[in-house]
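Progress note, sequence design subtask.
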């Protein structure tokens, strides 16, 4: 009977210690994400997009954890600038989203209105990020911007995005 009590006590201790262990936190940034649209573009809504190969797996290996160890992912900030350093005066608003072949589209952020003269815009981060972790784990995903223009434009649009995520993972 004494052996059974010790075994149960040991099991409880193990369960308790594993339940109390906290997740590690880290910041993961997708830098210089290029999204594009080929002109001519017209007044109103236009799609600007780009495909991204998964960089999270390499990041996790560098930081000595597996993507299977990830518990949560939260988008902390989104900034966009024009590749040619011009201002965003052609645009009135932008909604940024993310999608993959295996996951449905989710909202990342929005800015409305865009103030004239800005060379870089910072989007308000979306509140619901429930499927974000699944999307980040995909081998490839697409960033899609729904950009409203205030007039027609004959040229192309090339934007550079930076997305900063807060990740938690089991150590």
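Output:
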């Amino acid at each position: 009977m004494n052996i059974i009590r010790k075994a149960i006590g040991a099991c409880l201790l193990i369960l308790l210690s594993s339940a109390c262990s906290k997740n590690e936190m880290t910041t993961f940034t997708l830098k210089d994400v290029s999204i594009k649209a080929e002109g001519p573009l017209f007044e109103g809504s236009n799609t600007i997009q780009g495909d991204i190969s998964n960089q999270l797996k390499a990041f996790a290996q560098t930081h000595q954890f597996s993507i299977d160890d990830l518990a949560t992912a939260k988008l902390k900030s989104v900034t966009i600038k024009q590749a040619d350093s011009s201002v965003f005066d052609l645009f009135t608003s932008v909604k940024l989203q993310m999608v993959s072949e295996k996951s449905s589209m989710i909202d990342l952020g929005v800015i409305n209105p865009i103030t004239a003269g800005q060379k870089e815009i910072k989007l308000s981060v979306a509140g619901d990020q429930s499927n974000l972790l699944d999307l980040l784990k995909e081998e490839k995903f697409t960033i899609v911007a729904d950009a409203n223009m205030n007039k027609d434009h004959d040229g192309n649009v090339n934007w550079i995005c930076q997305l900063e995520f807060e990740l938690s993972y089991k150590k």
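Strands lie at 24-37, 44-53, 70-82, 91-99, 106-111, 120-125, 140-149, 157-169. Work on this subtask will continue into the next period as scheduled.
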